[in-house]
Amino acid sequence: MTRPPARSRRSPRTAAAALGGLSALLVSTVSGCGINPSGPVHAGAPASGVQRPGTEARLVRLYFAGPDGIRAVSRPVDRPLGPQQALDLLLEGPTSAESGRGLTSQVPPIAGRLTATTADGAVDIHVPVKVSTGDLDVTAVSQLACTAAHSEVPGDEPPTRIHIRIHESGTRSSNPWTVRCGSNGNATPVTA
Fold first, then answer.
1. Got the DSSP string for 122-143?
2. What is the pLDDT of residue 53?
3. How many domains, the chain?
4. Residue 131 sits in which domain range?
5. Residue 164: CB partners within 8 Å, gap ≥ 6?
6. For 57-106, what is each residue's pLDDT tens digit?
7. pLDDT in tens, 118-143
8. Under 8 Å CB-to-CB from 148, ≥6 apart: which residues?
9. Is 178 inside a domain boundary?
10. Cβ neighbours of residue 123 under 8 Å, at least 6 residues apart?
11. Cα angle vertex 134, ends 131, 136, to 5°?
12. Cβ atoms of residues 167 and 125 within 8 Å
């Protein structure tokens, strides 16, 4: 008959140390999973409540330049805005909360000198600068075109089908740049 192997005797001090180490490991694992504590982090405006029954939320969509391209933002308004009113808001630039998210405007300061009108389900935007010489870059054209297309434009066309005619300063009004706002927020030329 064989004898079971002899057990080594541990001192009470060794057992207590092992138990203490196991307890410390268990507490650190359960209490934070290795994540260091941090203070509160500012994440923008607080959430808004549920809309009151019977009221209609009105939003205007503005387009700004972001770190990863054109970005749309929605702002609450008290009434539907046409292209001129929406573009006037765009020309004021991003709010401080929008700027905090990295949004900027590439549209030069042309407030009061930009006009927008609607005709035949299209929007005519008259700008006091030249697009062809780079006074208004492609990002700015996208901001203007998409903001105008997503405003209240008469007709049944969805925003991505509305023709936006950009009339440059010093050119014949019968020869505008015609673009549409793509689903990605970039202006795309309309070909014949």
1. EEEEE-SS-TTTTSS-HHHHHH
2. 60
3. 1
4. 59-189
5. 122, 123, 125, 144, 145, 148, 149, 178, 179, 180, 181, 187
6. 689 999 999 999 999 999 999 999 999 999 999 999 999 999 999 999 99
7. 988 899 999 988 776 777 889 999 99
8. 83, 86, 87, 116, 123, 125, 162, 164
9. yes
10. 83, 116, 117, 148, 149, 151, 153, 162, 163, 164, 165
11. 55
12. yes
Residue 138 lies in a domain: yes
**pLDDT tier, 109 (very low <50, low <70, confident <90, very high otherwise):** confident
Measured between its terminal Cα atoms, the distance across the chain in Å is: 101
**145/148 Cα distance (integer angstroms):** 5
Q: 12 in a domain, yes or no? A: no
Contact 160, 166 (CB under 8 A): no
| Calpha distance 23→17 (Å, rounded) | 10
Helix, strand, or coil here: 89? helix
Extract the tokens encoding 56. Answer: 């209609």
DSSP sequence for 92-123:
T---HHHHHTT-B--S-S-TTS-EEEEETTEE
Amino acid 110: pLDDT: 81
Instruction: Name the percent of the chain in helix, strand, coil, to the closest 5.
Output: 25, 20, 55
In angstroms, the CA 66 to CA 76 distance is 20
